[in-house]
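Board work, copied verbatim: Shikimate dehydrogenase (NADP(+))
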Amino acid sequence: MNISAKTKICMVIGDPIEHSLSPIMHNAGYEKVGIDSEFVFLACNVIVDQIADFVAGIKAMKIRGVSCTLPHKMEVMKYMDDIDEIAKKIGAVNTIVNDRGVLKGYNTDLIGAIAPLQKITLLENKKVALIGAGGVARAFAYGLTQKGSNLTIYNRTIEKAQELATKFGGDARSFDTLEDVKNMDIIINATSVGLDPNYNESSLPKKLITDKHIVFDVIYVPYDTKLLRDAKQKGARIIHGIEMLLQQGIAQFKLYTGYDAPEETMRNALLDHLNRKTK
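↓ predict structure ↓
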């Protein structure tokens, strides 16, 4: 890494943020492409009450790009100068690009949500259980209904599930009816349940998982969440959260730098870090 006064800053913001692997992934990509003197990727803890000040700081500090994670994906939209059409339809921004002081919001979560699923199954007419109704769930809801999936959204607060179902299509259910997931083809956890250090928590009882399911957990720390461990034990096919992180990050890489992302280098950087952490 060759940082100088000319190096452009990119970063991920959230609360909490200590678990984020985005800096590892992006900086490995910069080094591989040979632009690690031009770009550096950092992480910053920003609470909701500070988001307006932070966005002003993007312009003041000439920060090139920002990745937004929980809890900022919807709140940050009101501060953008322009918003990509897909992000408008989803109603969430996870990527900000600063082009000479003009901030444009994008949603690369859509790519991260759908690409890993499409690698292993067709989505048309699939019955999908989406657990959660926050910012990342919106990308899944939009993408899955666009692909012709039959979507059921489960959330602790039924009103939030109903809001997504009304906007994107599908049914809304409370957690009291999770028993219904037995009849689904795909189960997606789009909540923070199971995030390190609460690695023995799961959004779904193990008894509801079968070997006919595809189970996708957006959480990537730990790599094998309790939900995924349970799913493997029941014989289900699984998708790790780093696949979503990677695919949305690849799209961000292009937006921030203009270069194509080195996918395998970035994936290996993530896996190497997670392997070291578990030893």
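The chain has a mean pLDDT of 96.
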